[in-house]
Design a protein that fits this description.
Layout (H helix, E strand, L loop, with lengths): L5 H26 L4 H16 L3 H19 L4 H37 L3
Length: 117
């Protein structure tokens, strides 16, 4: 087992604090109209999750941020385009990750079958 570094502790603390902030923004968004600051916070948290390969947690946040930005700014606004590109990059990473896992599984299966030839 590797020791926990100070950087890892700071990253974890930052992530937890950011998640609590997002919860507050999300609650505000449910009560009021969609606000661009909420979309920015959602996008930022999603980007953090994306950078940690937590794709399943990042995707719904990108989708929610995209929905808000489309409502507030329109489909072709640069802020909206940024979130859409972030979402597309995430989806490409998820697809690549699935392919690697499938190839690893297929390779393992082929090796296993090779034992019986």
């Amino acid at each position: 087992m590797q020791p926990i570094t100070a950087g890892a502790i700071v990253t974890l603390a930052f992530t937890k604090a950011f998640e609590k902030t997002i919860e507050k923004f999300t609650e505000a968004a449910l009560v009021k109209e969609a606000h661009p600051d909420v979309a920015t916070s959602l996008n930022n948290l999603a980007y953090l999750y994306d950078s940690q390969a937590r794709y399943d947690q990042a995707e719904p946040l990108f989708l929610q941020a995209l929905k808000i930005r489309q409502q507030v700014f329109g489909v072709n606004h640069p802020n909206t385009v940024t979130v859409r590109e972030n979402l597309e990059n995430l989806q490409a990473k998820k697809n690549a990750s699935r392919k690697v896992k499938n190839n690893a599984n297929n390779s393992w299966w082929e090796k296993l079958l090779g034992l019986f030839e």
